[in-house]
Design a protein that fits this description.
single chain; alpha+beta; BirA Bifunctional Protein, domain 2; Rossmann fold; 8-stranded mixed β-sheet; 15 helices
Length: about 425
């Protein structure tokens, strides 16, 4: 239907815009104070970017991408996650030649995944992400986690903790793969078809399966933390020390592998305790090989992504969003058609003073104009016309107290702006 949004998408209506703007302002402020600059990448990229970057064993690539051929017969994919595009921009823009680390963020970036729509995760949803290129120390992951705690805590969300894991590196991960395969060998036939396929390609991804029977099978599987090389183990230990130094509550969770194949070493999720189970608000980790795999120089990197819709749902359910600030501070009413031009002129003068002002554009009666001013929660109504206008003044009415004052037409815009302050 032409008048119905496609399944898995949702409009942001004008009356809800202030909620998004409130959250986005918090995110922009955080990113700026932490030294991250904004990057904006295309909504679509060449499909190969995600096949190579995200990984052909991830659900995103195998099941969820919106992929099509353009008129030039090129395979194009709507962006299913934010990191690969940021890495491509880092390489194409030769940002590796600048002073490192290079810190960038993206905000309200549309993400497209063909999956069953659920609360906070639509087929088109929007993410805020921070990516740091060039930092090899665990200080990077600690910084990202601390930034998330400051952001979510600043929005009023409570009962937060971080679940962390290390999934090793190309040096030590094969050893764990072997141990995991040995454990799963006699059990794999009882697992879902997806896990059976992953068994040969990337057994680590089996730990991420959401099927209950598969979760029960892997709950006693060997822990990857027992197979880390000295470098990965030392990196992970230092991360824990950094988080403890900032009093960030964290728990080791060897079952976290994240749903993307590019991660190395650290992976993490921010959990909010909600009822009996925790809700994963966001996640991220380190991806030291991705820049090189996509054609750039070897560059360590780490980042996170957080769904804005999911955060808004939690803020709404907990009553943490501010009141709607309203769209009009001063409504300029006229006492007749002959006052339309003076009312319009005064409205423009108020706007030039930084006042949110509006006037009648529908030819309403004075009574109807006052009703409209009430509906838009105007703080003041300026009445243009009558004896006041003949005396060279305009009447300003406080819509809450009903008190009225008169200002000279010459200074009325400035004095009305002062009232609002």
């Amino acid at each position: 239907m032409l008048t119905q949004a496609p399944k898995g998408t949702k409009d942001m209506l004008p009356q809800d815009a202030y909620q998004w703007q409130y959250v986005e302002a918090k995110m922009r402020d955080l990113a700026a104070r932490w030294g991250y600059r904004e990057v904006r990448t295309p909504v679509f990229e060449h499909t190969e970017l995600f096949q190579r970057g995200v990984g052909d064993t991830s659900d995103i690539v195998t099941k969820e991408m919106y992929t099509f051929l353009d008129k030039g017969e090129r395979s194009i994919t709507l962006k299913p996650e934010g990191t690969a595009g940021a890495v491509r921009a880092f390489i194409e823009g030769k940002l590796y030649n600048e002073a490192l680390p290079c810190k960038m963020y993206y905000l309200a970036a549309p993400i497209f995944r063909y999956e069953k729509p659920q609360a906070g995760r639509l087929r088109e949803h929007h993410q805020f992400g921070m990516e740091c290129f060039g930092g090899k120390e665990p200080t990077v992951e600690a910084e990202l986690i601390c930034a998330l705690f400051e952001l979510l805590g600043g929005l009023g969300l409570k009962n937060l903790s971080v679940h962390i894991n290390s999934i090793g590196c190309p040096e030590c991960r094969p050893r764990y793969h072997q141990k995991l395969k040995e454990y799963l060998g006699e059990r794999i036939s009882d697992m879902c078809p997806t896990c059976q396929e992953r068994f040969a390609k990337n057994p680590l991804r089996i730990l991420d399966c959401k099927e209950e029977k598969c979760k029960q099978i892997v709950k006693d599987a060997p822990s990857i933390l027992d197979c880390l090389c000295d470098d990965c183990a030392g990196h992970f230990e230092k991360l824990q020390t950094l988080l403890a130094a900032r009093n960030i509550p964290f728990a080791l969770d060897p079952r976290i592998v994240r749903g993307l194949d590019y991660y190395t070493k650290t992976v993490f999720e921010i959990i909010m305790q909600s009822g009996r189970e925790g809700l994963a608000l966001c996640g991220g980790g380190r991806y030291d090989k991705l820049v090189e795999e996509l054609g750039g120089p070897a560059t360590p990197a780490a980042g996170f992504g957080i769904g804005i819709e999911r955060i808004l749902i939690e803020l709404t359910s907990q009553g943490l969003l501010p009141e709607n600030p309203g769209i009009t501070d001063v409504y300029v009413a006229n006492l007749g058609a002959d006052m339309a031009v003076p009312a319009f002129t005064f409205t423009q003068a108020l706007r030039e003073k930084g006042v949110k002002a509006d006037c009648d554009v529908c030819g309403r009666s004075l009574k109807a104009q006052f009703k409209f001013a009430d509906k838009v929660n105007a703080k003041y109504v300026a009445i243009m016309g009558g004896d006041e206008y003949a005396r060279g003044t305009v009447k300003i009415r406080n819509m809450q107290t009903r008190e009225e004052v008169e200002f000279s037409l010459e200074t009325a815009a400035e004095e009305t702006a002062a009232l609002l302050k």
